[in-house]
Amino acid sequence: MIKYKNCRICNSNNIETVIKFEKTPIGDAWKKVKKKFTTFYPLNIFFCKKCRSIQLKETISEKKIYNNFFYEISVTSGLKEHYKKFSEQLTKKYFKENKKYKILDIGSNDGSFLFPFSKKKFFCLGIEPTKHIARKANSRKIHTLNIFFNKKNSVKIKKKYGDFDLISLNFILANVDYIHNFLDGVDNLIKRDGILIIETSHILKVSQKFLFDTFFHEHIFYFSLRTLKKIFFDRGYKFLN
């Protein structure tokens, strides 16, 4: 476990702990062993006074979290239908007919986001760190690499597959501890005129609805639109309507 004294985004040490929860197991480790729960870890949230981001103070190893990760998108009612409609909207708005595009989904889970694009005969590639879930996606004919995404692996991906017209980060960016290295990898793989799609929770809605159960070790960042704009404007991205 790593305990941070500086902001992961701007590296400022001007941070303040704003929420302190009781120690808790990893989200997918709530099971009893000899009448006792598995290992408990600190769960504290801090606010960076410089860049105004909100994030976890401690980080657990990604391998510890995702090697035994159980959630699959397909079990969530309505999410598959959402991705189907979403793919239609994206295709209609940004893609030309009779042209084959390349789509990369990072944190692709069981391939639910990519599946509608694969039906259009687009080249689809998923990145999924949990072995049994990646295996399930591949069984659905969604080509999926069982790796953690970072700058180093992006170089290997680019060498083999080239760059991509669309990269999607569906509820994964907030889960990445090494956010700048991760986004360097995204920058390396997206085409100059490519599209980056991000789905993530919004801290305003979390606070307004008092969604305290969204605070757990898998979720490292709790983004505001201001924070996201700062991150991506600094990298030369622009927001599309």
Q: Look at the helices and sheets and give the structural class.
A: alpha/beta
Number of strands: 12
Overall mean pLDDT:
89
| Spatial separation of the terminal alpha carbons | 40 Å
Topology as H/E string? EEEEEEEHHEHEHEHEHEHH
Given as residue ranges, the uncertain stretches (5+ residues, pLDDT < 50) are: none
Query: Widest sheet: strand order?
Result: 10-9-8-11-12
Using the CA coordinates, give the radius of gyration: 18 Å
Q: What's the shape?
A: globular
- Strand percent estimate: 15-25%
Largest sheet: 5 strands, parallel
Per DSSP, the total helix count is 8
Key features of this structure:
241 residues, alpha/beta, five-stranded parallel beta sheet, three-stranded antiparallel beta sheet, 12 strands, globular
Write the layout of secondary structure elements.
Layout: E1 2-3, E2 15-24, E3 32-33, E4 36-37, E5 41-48, E6 54-56, E7 58-59, H1 62-66, H2 79-94, E8 102-106, H3 115-119, E9 123-127, H4 131-139, E10 144-145, H5 151-161, E11 164-170, H6 179-189, E12 190-199, H7 203-208, H8 225-233
Helix pairs in contact: 5-6
Provide an overview of this structure:
The protein is α/β, with parallel strands linked by helices. Helix content is 30%, strand content 24%. It has a five-stranded parallel sheet. A three-stranded antiparallel sheet has the order 2-5-6, with no helix packed on it. Strands 1-7 form a two-stranded antiparallel ribbon. α6 (179-189) links the parallel β11 and β12. The model has no long low-confidence stretch (mean pLDDT 89).
